[in-house]
């Protein structure tokens, strides 16, 4: 779980519900004050939300990029049905294409797609469905296939618990098992976010994390610039696995010093600089 430094949007950021052909989605939308070089669509990970990118919004806007972070269906402030089938990966990927179409405005430049962790799996599925929609794809701490065995065990424990217990009971159990030093970090806001997730979404996407096939070759075949970003350590997808995935994709590779599974919250300034530099490199010379 990414732990954002705050749940309060920064100055200049609009929080609203984005209307799309596939429903409404809660977003945080930050525009540059000057020229817009491009628009970045940011997809959060498992148990996360649009606020996971909150520390990136102003730096990316300062670099010239309109930045829109999104709660997917059933995530935090976006509604979703109580049916696991509604959260099939193809459904989530189709949502992303609808979001990209709804966000796009004249003069906003090319659309860059970024997904963190689970969001990376959804992002690559969207790119495979309609690669011409995006000018680039960034996979942040998101690997080639299913998560590491230790994380599969954790995900299965969580999804099994969610199938039989209320969300608040599961939250209390998670906190009891978590490291003591995490007990007082934004506890009330993190709990409030957790309780607003639809359990069907968490169960369905938790299963996806455990069963995701390797789709790297199919993604590599797309004529789409790619960027693989991670911290120096990652328990969900080991860093050497991400290095190898980047090689297979012929992707630009960035390792953020001092960061682990969530460079977006661990080292936001450095992460924003790396993202903007990659997108800048794609601009016509």
TrEMBL record:
Organism the protein comes from: Streptomyces aurantiacus JA 4570
Classification via Gene3D superfamilies: alpha/beta hydrolase
Domain called AB hydrolase-1: residue spans: 41-274
Name under which the protein is recorded: AB hydrolase-1 domain-containing protein
One GO MF term: catalytic activity
InterPro entries the record matches: AB_hydrolase_1 (IPR000073), AB_hydrolase_fold (IPR029058), Carboxylesterase_BioH (IPR050228)
Domain of life according to the entry: Bacteria
Pfam families, A to Z: Abhydrolase_6 (PF12697)
């Amino acid at each position: 779980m990414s732990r954002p430094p705050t749940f309060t949007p920064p100055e200049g950021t609009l929080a609203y519900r984005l209307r799309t052909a596939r429903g409404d989605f809660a977003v945080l939308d930050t525009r540059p004050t000057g020229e817009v070089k491009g628009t970045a669509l940011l997809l959060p990970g498992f148990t996360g939300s649009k606020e996971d990118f909150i520390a990136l919004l102003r730096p990316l806007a300062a670099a010239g990029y309109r930045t829109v972070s999104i709660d997917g269906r059933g995530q935090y402030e976006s509604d979703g049905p109580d049916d696991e089938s509604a959260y099939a990966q193809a459904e989530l990927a189709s949502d992303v294409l609808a979001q990209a179409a709804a966000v796009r405005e004249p003069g906003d430049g090319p659309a860059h797609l970024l997904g963190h962790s689970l969001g990376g799996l959804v992002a690559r599925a969207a790119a495979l469905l309609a690669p011409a929609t995006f000018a680039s794809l960034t996979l942040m701490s998101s690997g080639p296939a299913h998560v590491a065995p230790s994380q599969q065990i954790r995900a299965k424990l969580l999804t099994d618990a969610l199938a039989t217990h209320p969300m608040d009971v599961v939250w209390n159990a998670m906190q009891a098992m978590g490291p003591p030093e995490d007990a007082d970090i934004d506890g009330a806001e993190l709990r409030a976010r957790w309780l607003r997730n639809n359990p069907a979404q968490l169960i369905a996407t938790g299963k996806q994390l455990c069963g995701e096939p390797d789709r790297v070759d199919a993604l590599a075949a797309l004529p789409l610039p790619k960027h693989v970003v991670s911290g120096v350590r990652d328990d969900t997808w080991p860093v050497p696995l991400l290095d190898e995935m980047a090689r297979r994709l012929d992707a630009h590779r960035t390792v953020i010093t001092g960061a682990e599974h969530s460079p977006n919250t661990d080292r936001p300034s450095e992460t924003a600089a790396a993202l903007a530099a990659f997108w800048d490199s794609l601009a016509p010379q």
